[in-house]
Amino acid sequence: MIILVINCGSSSIKYQLLDMKNDEVYDLMAKGLVEKIGLPDGCLTHKPTGKDPFSMTLPIPDHKVGMKLVLDALVDPEHGVLSSFDDIEAVGHRIVQGADFFSGSTLVDEDVLAKIRICCDFAPLHNPAHLLGIEAMSHVLPEVPQVVTFDTAFHQTMEPYAYMYALPYEYYEKYRVRRYGAHGTSHQYVSQRGAKLAGLDLGNSKIITCHLGNGSSVTAIKDGKVVDTSMGFTPLEGMIMGTRCGNIDANILPYIMKKENLTPDEMTTIMNKKSGFLGLSGRSSDMRDLDAAAREGDVRSKIALKKLTYDTIKNVGAYIAEMNGVDLIVFTAGIGENNPRLRRHLAFMGVKIDVEVNERARSSETIISAPDSAVKVALIPTNEELVIARDTMHIISELDN
User: Fold this and answer.
1) Model confidence, pTM
2) Distance separating alpha carbons of residues 385 and 31, to the nearest angstrom
């Protein structure tokens, strides 16, 4: 089954085209990225398997035009991998926020779209863009079925004491205010792959997954089910991130708003887009930039980097206590896969890192703990697109039976 996997941002479209034979056998036919949608210097980068990469720069006014560029690239006589649009049998989309409406992937219909729209309030930076992607694909390929996979679905196994806030209960009943988590598709994939790599029975295991990138979260997974995760009602809660502040005293918000005469929307922008690495360092939201600045002696960059390490250790330690132990700790995403300095700081509670292996490990499945470590530690590159493709394949196959 040929499946197009779409991950829409507010001004971008990431995509992969996979030919799914079954859950474990598949071919990546092409992948790419559309950037700077809405700007005059929009860009498409298309990477077909077995052929030279292709890129072009042109105005891309909206997601419909961007999606048409993706499809045209896939059937292009020189750079394409399909004979026609008819070869695409289904489309799978990543959705950041599904609240407690969805505990798994589902076929797109009007009811599903309406619930995704409700969840725009919980993920204002993400869900509106995902809806644009679904609508654009409906316009370009109206007869092709679409499936949505939710980053929040994997976390629906949390108990009420883990996901409820100690606010008046009526806010949960009226406005669905509770913890939902995020990055669930990534945490699900790397926990399953990590268990296989470490020789663990997923159904009888204690795993902590650390998705560390521009957005970061840590998740506790017991017997294959989430018991806790660091993100909350929105992807703002938890650790320091690229531009997000993570956990802060809630009373800071009205205090700053009064002092600076800010509206709620302005305060939301500060917390989501002007904080984190960027706000603390005053330099950049990219860890690579902060690494370079820290080596040159910049104190604020050093603090930002130390805080990410501190937040990671704090969450991992808490989840070890919560699960009464851990068998495996997994690192993934841009920082988790490429920053050995951060990973080696987990030398506590029976964890021993193999310094040489850890230093070499980059974006490939690797056990980085020492042979005599009481806890295994692994690096697992995430593959959210494969999870989406698998779920899409199963749902569409059920329709055909």
Assistant:
1) 0.89
2) 10
